[in-house]
Amino acid sequence: MCARRICGGERGTMYSAPSPPPAAGMSLREATLADLDAMTWVLVAASPLDPVYPYRFPDRLSYPAEFAQLCRQKCREYLATSTVMVCEMEAWPSFPSASECGQKARRVVAFSAWDAPVAQSTPPHVAEPLSKPVHNPVSPVTIGNQDRMNAFRKACQENKASFFDARYPRGHMFLKILLCHPDYQRKGAGQALTTWGINRAKALGLNTTVFASPMGHRLYKKLGFQPIGSFRVQLVGDEDFLEIPALIFKPQDDGQHEVRPVKRAATRETMVLRVQSTFHHTREIQVRTDE
């Protein structure tokens, strides 16, 4: 049986995001509970391009409401346990009204969640308790591959401990997740959010760490992250698997005050992926990985 690496992208499709106008008034700020809807919107839209979601939730397209509810709960957890930064841009006319996400002329288009070395309690801006049930008008349906979810969670915990925690006992700035809505990608949001974390870590004298997705890997390498290894998530007898690289950014001892975002190159990359469909047909998918 041949193993297949899950690399992201919808089955049998060419992903090519529209070309929005230049980012207008892009800004970063710390997230609040009021951003929950916007973060959920970003996560649901970006999930097909991050292989960890198709791998764990191969049936998500059959249960979109349940998957969106799961994404919403995950975003609530990020707000309660991590430092979440959001990137706002001006909404442009061809997209749905920004008011859908509680915005007027601007909308949240990307977010990142960071874990600092000091144990954090629930941030003061999260007034709504995490355990409070979220209204779900759809009958509950268990989605996802539970065995894959358990294997993924265990592998991430074990490899975070071995790659990062044991290596840096003083702590490190861990980038838990970085997502940008596909319609706003390649406008600098991911770069700005990552640079924020690098500078915060640098001010604390810490390394910045991340388990990279295929979409994020090229960005991290451009910003100066170095690979230190990788790990595989694969169930016995399962031909699909994830290969996840671990990267670190070490602060420079050169007296510089900030890490400046690098200029985006004009080139772009294309990955040819092989994934197994629901009906066990194998197709090749091309996914652009440029920022």
From TrEMBL:
* Name of one Pfam family that matches: Acetyltransf_7
Q: Where is the N-acetyltransferase domain?
A: 106-248
Mind listing the GO molecular function terms for this protein? acyltransferase activity, transferring groups other than amino-acyl groups
Domain of life of the organism encoding this protein: Eukaryota
- InterPro entries per record: Acyl_CoA_acyltransferase, GNAT_dom, Trichothecene_AcTrans
Signal peptide residue numbers: none
Q: What is this protein called?
A: N-acetyltransferase domain-containing protein
